[in-house]
Write a structure and sequence with these properties.
Layout (H helix, E strand, L loop, with lengths): L1 E6 L4 E4 L2 E4 L3 E7 L5 E4 L6 E4 L5 E5 L4 E5 L5 E2 L2 E2 L4 H7 L1 E4 L9 E4 L5 H10 L6 H17 L14
Antiparallel strand pairs: 1-8, 2-3, 4-5, 4-9, 4-10, 6-7, 7-8, 11-12
Helix pairs in contact: 2-3
Length: 161
């Protein structure tokens, strides 16, 4: 049995005569009873897992919607734009091929990006990313400025994280 949790096709929700922007999905994850975490990274990234209890679990939709199994014993770990930046920065990931683009794809949390990589993403990828993710990156710069009084760690200059 599947259930549709949310979809982000329509940015507005009409309630009590007002228009309200729907929260944007930033990370679509689920924990199964045996502790396995399923993560759907894009719209048609259909992932499955047969749990230690013998049940099949699935997750699909990435940033666009959440479609998942409904066994009743899974834990949804979906993060949206309504969540705190503290949670968002520790969960939401950015895919990187390294500074020169010649490394295998790996995913790094926003908190794990070094300041130079974060700035390079904001400077060069604005037109290639979802607006909600771009805002998360901008919020991360503000967060680091507030936390470190405008002095970010620059020890790893030039190294993509």
């Amino acid at each position: 049995m599947n259930r549709l949790i949310d979809d982000n096709y329509d940015a507005t929700d009409i309630s009590v005569g007002t228009l309200k922007e729907r929260p944007k999905i930033l990370s679509s994850r689920m924990r199964t009873p045996d502790g396995t975490i399923l993560e759907s990274k894009n719209r048609h990234d259909y992932v499955t897992h047969t749990d230690a209890n013998g049940k099949e679990y699935m997750l699909d939709g990435g940033f666009d919607y959440v479609r998942c199994s409904a066994n009743g014993d899974e834990e949804m770990l979906t993060v949206t734009s309504d969540d705190s930046h503290g949670l968002i920065r520790e969960v939401v990931k950015w895919g990187t091929y390294g500074k020169d683009g010649d490394e295998p794809l790996r995913y790094v949390t926003i908190a794990g990006l070094n300041p130079y990589h974060l700035r390079a993403i904001l400077d060069t990828q604005q037109w290639n990313m979802r607006p909600a993710l771009y805002k998360v990156m901008q919020d991360e710069v503000k967060y680091r400025d507030e936390q470190f009084n405008g002095t970010l760690n620059t020890e790893s200059k030039g190294k993509a994280s």
